[in-house]
Amino acid sequence: MRILVEITGVIPGSPADRAGIKTGDFLISMNQHKIRDVLDYMYYAAETDVCLIVQTQEMQREIKIQKDEYDDLGLEFASFLMDQKQSCKNKCVFCFIDQMPPGMRETLYFKDDDARLSFLQGNYVTLTNMTQEDVDRIISMKLNINVSVHTTNPELRCKMMHNRFAGEKLDFLWQMARAGIQLNCQIVLCPGLNDGAELERTLQDLGKMLPNLTSVAVVPVGLSKYRKNLYPLTGFTKQTAGDAIDLIQKYQKNFLEKFQTRAVFPSDEFFLMAERKIPDAEYYEDYPQYENGVGMLRSLADEFASALESAEAGTLPRKVTIATGKSPYDFLCELARQAETAFPGLICQVICIRNDFFGESITVTGLITGQDLIAQLKNRDLGEELLLSSSMIRRNDDVFLDDLHISEIETALHTKIRLVDNDGYDLLDAMLGIEY
Rounded to the nearest 10 degrees, how much is the dihedral formed by the CA atoms of 251, 252, 253, 256? Predict the structure, then answer.
């Protein structure tokens, strides 16, 4: 079957434009390879000599283009993927999307499970959407991929994902590892399901993939108050969070001795729940699972300390407020105290926001909604600015999870809002009111 991908735009002056390709033409193949989606396009377009077969309204043309390696051809398509995004076929017992209230914007209920987004954007995939052809392509293109493993027990994986193919799809993981594909893995840990002896089994199995296994993040299950008719799960306690850390660190020691890497890392939440000190930077090596909440607090603290050391000290009459989730509250209080000590006159109050929207068991900052901010901060003296983590806001937008805009929060609270990235220098600048 011939695949046609419509070209919806051609960048003026680009190699494609100079070669006479027009909007409305159809791309059939590149260097004798069919083009199914953006992965094929990017891979073959990276070559210096590209032979395209293009279908125009009148005829089929062969177009040869010479360019520098990795230079963009200049073609645009209807969607980023040149195809529809693949949705998740699983119904995982821990899935947070199934725990959201009704009435939210439609995009929040979409579950993606697309291997292409794993390579391009760092998303995690379960492998259940993938075919042998997909795996062969990943291996031939030598693409890195992020995999949600959760357990290497096939029967338990089927149960946890509510997908009868989830266990056998683990074979794709072993195939990619044997082929030298660099893999980042993720385990959502659920007490009574895949922890304890099951976690040991999983770490033992994943350890056999080293050194092609780049890293593993272990993150705790998040449980909202909207779990009616869902699988009965329990959250972590101080004791069980500590037990998970201890087991993971046993394997870290083993991996470090054999492979010079800890490989597996518990997320920051485990240390906060267990009321244990966040490890030093050395523990996190090159921060391979930073985006998964592994080492974020250590990085923030170290950057903040460096920012304080290099800042020009002085009296600063200023008051600001940081609103945060319960998990990092104590941690941020300590950073605020350090800033107040270094800058007499600075008042930096930290307020813990209770998550009424999703339920009090949700304690991370990124899931705080606009309505909870308004309800709990209204009529309080917030000072000159309200500092909020940028993780509360939809990417490249100014909207909270409940669709309230930043401007609406500012109006309700009569306070200017400043978004702060997880960066110690950015945080100190925000506390001091420094603008760039």
Answer: 120
pLDDT digits (tens, 9 = 90+) for 220-235: 999 999 999 999 999 9
Task: Write the single-letter amino acid at 378.
Answer: K
CB atoms within 10 A of CB 172: 21
pLDDT digits (tens, 9 = 90+) for 157-212: 999 999 999 999 999 999 999 999 999 999 999 999 999 999 999 999 999 999 88
Q: Which amino acid is at 103?
A: G
Contact 289/217 with Cβ under 8 angstroms? yes
**Are β-strands 183-189 and 33-34 bridged in parallel, bridged antiparallel, or unpaired?**
unpaired
- Note whether 99 and 230 are within 8 A (CB): yes
| Residue spans of beta strands (DSSP E) within 286-411 | 318-324, 346-352, 385-389
Q: What is the DSSP letter of 187?
A: E
> Which domains are assigned to the chain?
5-77 (2.30.42.10), 97-293 (3.80.30), 299-432 (no CATH)
The identity of residue 386, as a single letter, is: L
Q: How many CA atoms lie within 13 A of 379 on its CB side?
A: 2
With a CB cutoff of 8 Å and minimum separation 6, the contacts of 171 are none
CA 152 vs CA 130, 278, 300: distances in Å: 17, 28, 33
Mean pLDDT computed over 325-348: 97
Q: Could you tell me if 349 and 383 are in contact, meaning their C-beta atoms sit under 8 angstroms apart?
A: yes
CA–CA gap between residue 263 and residue 280 (Å, rounded): 16
Question: In whole angstroms, what is the distance from residue 56 CA to residue 25 CA?
Answer: 5
The one-letter amino acid code at 193 reads: L
Do 70 and 45 form a contact (C-beta atoms < 8 A)?
no
